[in-house]
Design brief:
Number of strands: 22
Number of helices: 27
Mean pLDDT: 81
Helix content: 40-55%
Structural class: alpha+beta
Largest sheet: 6 strands, mixed
Length: 713
């Protein structure tokens, strides 16, 4: 239904279709109040603003949600954008509705597309809002869905920003909550903005495929119904082509062309009982050949959000693979609405679906996984890992089930059981066979962890572990082992960083920095600085937020590149990290500005057949700010004070150390990557000559992603 035509009567009719006992008077009052508050306000498209909250409420009726959630949808922008107050809503409706509206308002004010640190802080706030009442997120997701459906009225840069935020945060969050249909639509709408050519090419391929092979979906659906009728099973079969973004992602992950991609069709079989699910599986596997390794039984091992279904992939007509999902109709209700099924209504009563999870238990379980994270970046990493992860189910030697994300290793398994077991791990057995710790575990395997007293986690485990819990525990243990060394290194880095702005790293200054960065004390600050978890610049800015290194009239980095068209913005390619003074070339990206590469960057070969995207650029003449990132690969002797002397030399050369990464630690030498902020290529060469002359330095080279296997950060 067109949102411009949704009247109060229309909305109430939508609700009555699943909840005849709805409070019609209260819904109408909310509709009238919202319309009056938003009177005169317009959207970017020029239509009345109130069409938006009505559309959000209509989306939520598709999930058959309760009256309070629908009223919240109608009022969700009133406190933020009109003269209405929290007390007005509490007085006219209820405290519960006022709390929900307040929660949605606070979520709207979170800038989730900002820097990684800020994003992580806001992600934590988002989870806190969820823990209070999950319906806040349901309204916010419906709000985002309608905004994405009508995004074309916004400016191009705003479209790109909202689409990236949707792809990174809201779509995976919807998936994590079990609302797969919403995740797919959000992804596809964002994909349409971020890569319209890629999406259009997928759709064109589908049209061509359908013209060449006819309606494959109808033929396979007919075949499945025929087989089920023969077996006397009452079931419904639905088929569909997968969404363009889902296909695009598979093409990228598997590095396959569309013509080589097989499982682009999906089929769903709904029936009446769990027993019939397994009978149907047998029918499907007898008629079509099952694809090994593509079977998942989420009925016997449900997902944490209540999702239950059997997944299998079979070779259909002409050898084409198709995915088949088999579930009962009750399971399907939960699969469609996920955690929201808890609030669903049927004929005026709260749905008694046995598979709907308790949202309070679900969100508390989710929060527990992240409570151990000590800093915001670790938290953000853990959240994203958990939201995107599919699951495998493994067993302890005693037969207990442990859920892990797909791609997990025995180290993740050990930490999932207990931190002490993870820290003491020295090896693992899978199904009785000794395996390396980097082995990827699979469904149904039995895993035994081999432990030894005195064992501590190794740095390399961070690359092996995949779960946030394991990575957090490993980092915590490594910090404790190396704390004294990191504190000493942190002192040198802090001294150098503050010297860059003509300040001293006194005890009082460092105490202030620790307080402002919400760290326990100065030792914790220095330890994190020495272990590269925070940078010297971040420490300086926490005390002197408005101060910058003195550059004597240096050229602003935003206008440092000459040759761009008016309004174009640029970013420096991370593969070759070009510096002022080097010859450069620009490659245009629609909606993403111009990426600047050094003239000798090997990545430029990828664009040889697209000359229309090349722009001849040069650096602005004059003095540049020391804000251009580059990396040097440094090997130094493992002697007392060697690293401190190196940091001092770098500081004296007016270069800023933004990060340190140790590649090798041997008894006689260290090899590390030092991330620097420099003025230009001459500044780099001067610094490297200074370091080469130092007795402690065995070798120093410029590190670039195009020259090495190990990528820069």
């Amino acid at each position: 239904m067109d949102t411009t035509e949704i009247t109060a009567d229309d909305l109430i009719s939508l609700v009555k279709a699943y909840n005849p006992k709805t409070n019609e008077k209260l819904l109408r009052a909310a509709y009238d109040f919202g319309r009056d508050m938003h009177a005169g306000q317009l959207r970017h498209s020029g239509e009345a603003y109130f069409n938006h909250p009505v559309a959000v409420a209509a989306i939520l009726t598709e999930q058959q949600l309760d009256d309070d959630t629908l009223i919240t949808a109608l009022l969700h922008d009133t406190v933020e954008d009109t003269r209405a107050s929290y007390k007005d809503i509490e007085r006219l409706f209820s405290t519960e509705v006022a709390e929900l509206v307040d929660g949605v308002t606070k979520l709207t004010n979170l800038q989730l597309n900002s820097t990684e640190t800020k994003q992580a802080e806001n992600f934590r706030k988002l989870f806190m809002a969820m823990s209070k009442d999950l319906r806040v997120i349901l309204v916010k997701l419906a709000d985002r869905l309608h905004n994405m459906r009508t995004i074309r009225a916004m400016r191009d840069d705003k479209q790109a920003q909202k689409a990236r935020e949707t792809m990174d945060i809201y779509a995976p969050l919807a998936g994590r909550m079990g609302m797969q249909w919403m995740r797919e639509e959000l992804e596809d709408l964002a994909f349409k903005v971020l890569n319209p050519e890629g999406r259009a090419s997928i759709i064109r391929r589908f049209i061509t495929l359908q013209r060449e092979s006819g309606d494959v979906i109808q033929r396979i659906t007919g075949d499945m119904r025929l087989e089920l009728d023969k077996a006397g099973i009452d079931a419904e079969v639905y088929g569909r082509a997968k969404k363009p973004y889902s296909i695009w992602r598979k093409m990228q992950e598997k590095e396959l062309s569309f013509s080589r991609l097989s499982d682009i069709y999906g089929f769903r079989i709904l029936n009446n009982s769990e027993e019939d699910c397994y009978r149907i599986l047998g029918v499907i596997h007898r008629r079509w050949r099952a694809v090994p390794g593509r079977f998942k039984d989420y009925i016997s091992q449900p997902k944490s959000n209540g999702y239950r279904s059997i997944h299998t992939t079979v070779s259909g007509r002409d050898g084409k693979r198709v995915e088949v999902q088999i579930r009962t109709r009750q399971m399907h209700d939960v699969a469609e609405t996920g955690v929201a099924a808890h609030w669903s209504y049927r004929e005026g009563k709260r749905s008694k679906n046995p598979f709907a999870v308790d949202p309070v238990k679900w969100i508390s379980q989710l929060n527990e996984q992240f409570d151990a994270e000590e800093n915001h970046e670790d938290f953000l990493e853990a959240v994203k890992l958990e939201m995107y992860a599919d699951q495998v189910f493994c067993f302890t030697p005693k037969g207990d089930v442990v859920k892990l994300p797909r791609g997990a290793t025995p180290i993740d398994f050990a930490y999932a059981i207990h931190t002490r077991i993870g820290n003491a791990c020295v090896g693992a057995k899978i199904d009785g066979m000794r395996v390396p710790l980097w082995t990827r575990v699979k469904n149904g395997q039995s895993i035994e962890i081999i432990r030894a007293e005195g064992q501590t986690p190794q740095v390399t485990w961070l690359d092996i572990a995949t779960t946030g819990k394991a990575k957090s525990a490993i980092r915590r243990s490594l910090r404790e082992v190396d704390r004294a060394r990191f504190v000493k290194l942190g002192q040198e880095l802090a001294r150098s960083a503050f010297a860059q702005v003509d300040k001293e790293a006194t005890d009082k200054v460092l105490r202030t920095a620790a307080k402002n960065m919400r760290l326990e004390d100065v030792h914790e600050l220095l330890a994190r600085l020495g272990s590269s978890e925070i940078t010297g610049r971040e420490v300086v800015e926490s005390v002197y937020p408005d101060i910058t290194p003195k550059e004597g009239g240096a050229i602003d980095a935003r206008s440092a590149v000459v040759g761009l068209e008016q309004g174009q913005f640029h970013n420096l390619a991370p593969c070759c990290t070009p510096l002022p003074g080097e010859r450069i070339i620009g490659i245009t990206f629609k909606g993403q500005g111009v990426t600047v590469h050094a003239i000798d960057c090997e990545k430029l070969s990828e664009y040889e057949d697209q000359p229309e995207r090349w722009i001849d650029l040069r650096w602005h003449d004059g003095n540049h700010q020391a804000v251009y990132g580059t990396v040097i690969d440094l090997t130094i002797s493992n002697g007392a004070g060697a690293l401190g002397r190196i940091c001092t030399l770098i500081g004296e050369a007016s270069a800023n150390i933004s990060d340190l990464e140790f590649l090798e630690r041997k008894p006689d030498f260290y090899r590390m990557l030092i991330y620097l902020d420099l003025r230009d290529v001459a500044h780099l060469h001067s610094l490297m000559l200074t370091l080469e002359a130092e007795d402690d330095v065995a070798e120093v080279t410029r590190f670039r992603k195009i020259d090495a296997q190990k990528p820069t950060r």
